[in-house]
């Protein structure tokens, strides 16, 4: 059985973990948003930040899944356009 001090310590660790995840994930997302305007790899930092935030926040998990679907659709669209261009060029 846990005594009171162990339970209190466990609760503090959970709060500390949630705070660290929120700060790190939020910072990466904010940096990614800034890099949408500035030159840099926004496309890399935003999903990483959302993935970290999704460890503790349900809303971040939903946005991460939405962004994954969007990126998959975009990649399929671009694959189709490249195949069309190659077919047109080889005529």
Q: What can be said about this structure in brief?
A:
The protein is mainly α and 91 residues long.
How would you describe this structure to a colleague?
- This protein has three helices and no strands.
- It has 91 residues and is an all-alpha fold.
- The model has no long low-confidence stretch (mean pLDDT 89).
DSSP helix fraction: over 70%
Number of strands: 0
Spans of at least 5 consecutive residues whose pLDDT stays below 50 are: none
The best one-word shape is elongated
Our Rg estimate from Cα atoms comes to 21 Å
Q: What would you call the structural class?
A: mainly alpha
How many distinct helices? 3
Order of helices and strands: HHH
What is the strand content? under 5%
Distance between the termini: 77 Å
Largest sheet: none
Tags for this entry?
91 residues; mainly alpha; elongated
